[in-house]
Design goal:
homodimer; Maf protein; five-stranded mixed sheet; 6 helices; globular
Chain lengths: ~160, ~160
């Protein structure tokens, strides 16, 4: 459990929010971050590890045409995965990860090419990452970036401008 | 990645099988074991982290009456979770975990009370575990027992009696 895991949990709890995950390259690691915090069941509802492409379509309802057009290593797929996880679980927010952990490239994209999606009330974003390192480093850095992005959104939501 | 993770991957691959996960108390850790192995995408299709009880029903299709009657910390729930994950992902095998990681008890059951479910072709089993240790130990031991149970089934399948 890291300070970032705890921070995300406390920000979610403070706002009365819950979160879900939809993971491809991180293969369950993002769920582990969110369930490592004592009291995780207050804020974490669940998630989908959509490792096979067909699971992204059949479980997360990512449209097959979207995958045909943009590939699974894309901002569009990341957003659709987050949207699907949020709908499936009823969580207020959902965070997704899709990309190339390596060592081989995928869809012609190099290891370290990663997209994070975040879906929330009136919000749908994607973040492109260009990460370096071994497979495990890329997976772990993806989790940290995803949690930091969610934390930033939760902070901005709690302190609206004006 | 452990030798056991690799062994399960190789046994699955040798039999032309795939696997899915349905996790409650392990919160994504079983998926991490199965995706840590190089070439995991050949055998691991995906999984569901069903942390909230409602996600067990809404995503994994565990009948609400089953939960009312037996609770989520039960052999019946473990079997229904594995059945649900197998159906959702199209994997040949599915492994589920449900139980009490602690520190608090749940449904009047002590930390360390854990059930593992395994669903496969013509096969539906549950394994009851009585584990000791801290929360993290209980989660990790659950993963090891679940993978060992799957490996034993895969071995017995490959060397039929007679």
């Amino acid at each position: 459990m890291t300070d970032l895991d705890t921070r995300v949990h406390l920000l979610l709890r403070a706002g009365g929010h819950t979160v879900a995950t939809a993971e491809s390259l991180t293969g369950g690691r993002l769920a582990v971050h969110l369930t490592d915090v004592p009291g995780a069941s207050e804020t974490y509802r669940g998630g989908i590890v959509a490792y096979a492409t067909e699971v992204k379509s059949s479980v997360l309802q990512v449209p097959a045409e979207l995958i045909d057009e943009h590939g699974v290593v894309s901002a569009e797929c990341a957003q659709a995965m987050a949207t699907g996880a949020r709908a499936l679980t009823g969580a207020s927010y959902a965070v997704s990860t899709t990309g190339v952990a390596g060592p081989a490239e995928q869809e012609g994209k190099a290891p370290g090419t990663v997209f994070v999606g975040i879906s929330g009330p009136g919000l749908l974003r994607a973040l492109e990452l260009d990460l370096a390192g071994e497979r495990r480093d890329i997976q772990e850095q993806t989790c940290v970036h995803a949690l930091e992005a969610l934390a930033a959104i939760l902070v901005s939501e709690e302190t609206p401008l004006g």
